[in-house]
Amino acid sequence: MTFDIMQYEPVGDKKNSDFFNEYRLKIYDRRESSGVNDLLGNIRALAVQVDAGDGMAYMEELYTMTPYRFSAAYRSDTHNIYILTTNPDYPRFILLEPLDPDYEDDLRRMNMMYPLASAKPNARYVGEIFHTKDMAETRKVLESQNIRFHYPGETENAFYANEHFWFTFPSDFTFNRIGYTSCDMEDYDELQLGKRFDLTEEQLSVLNAHDAVVRELGIPELLKGVDHMATRILAGEREDAILEFLTMSNYYFWGAYNISEMNSSTNVNRNHHVTDDKQSPAKVFTANNTASFINSFENLPMPTEDFVRNYGRRMHHIAYEVTDGDHSSGMKNVDYVVGELHKLQIPFLAHVVGECKDTPDLKQIFSKHSKYSILITEYIERCHKFKGFFTKQNVASLTQAAGNDERYVHGQVFD
User: Fold this and answer.
1) What pTM did the predictor assign?
2) Mean residue pLDDT across the chain
3) CA distance 91 to 84
């Protein structure tokens, strides 16, 4: 899929400012001249933190709802760290679980600022980890561009700054981090995450039981891998968030579409060096078109802005691609997967949207928020080789369903 991103014309009907269009190209050019493009490879891992005591329960959820399976566990001074894997060409899943229920770092402090995030004070998507040929050179170049990195001894969690992982500070626009590693992510002991430990026989038995249930139903075989991750941000910070991510990655701005029914836009960034997005998933940013205080004049829907006000800037959902096709039960694969998961007491926000008849289309659905990570799981089936990540009608329906589930009632404000 490699092509000249300097000549690429983004798709979509969302109008970007002259500022954005100018600096998008300047960032591409600087990445090339500074060596960032040559240094960076694919996303090699996604990192998520949950509250103390929720590690096993969240892995059970991942076993039921995703293709990820447990590979190794380590214990640092502050955390249990679990590594889950699927297709070796796809990113790993790194799960962080504090050892102390009262553990506090910047993630907890960010969560405590928002009414619906504070119930799970340490639960938050951390960020992506990119492969780099040279960690020191990557940090040197990005620091010269005002990107801040954690250093050993300066953060409560040593995972963010050690010999094998260097993470940026949480973004002012998204609250997500980006990490970099030169390790191949094959030898987990090489990562020096802490002292390796084994799950108990009882814990393994529980995970294996979840695996057996979904395998008997044929669900894991239909789930391919992570298709995209979507972060919700404030209306006025959309362009800055995208440009910041482009600065720290080797992705390009694919395009943006207005979702007028929900007063928002969906903005997609992709890695043009891969032939399959699941090798390095798309990074999506969603933002309101009008800020909440201005919207009081317009009285338009604003579920995206409400989410940020209630939960903070953060990752909203992780989407998994479902194999396109007609299941032997007589329905589309995604309908079958969702139907069987529903029988397993997995709650969803609404019905599957999209039709997928005789023309290219999408079928999509959101789960309810995870009780452990606060992340929504999306399932997406591209029918008849549909190209893209959404249809406007689908996104409007999904956004509305999520908004209805993410309301915070306080005083005379119901959002």
Assistant:
1) 0.93
2) 92
3) 9
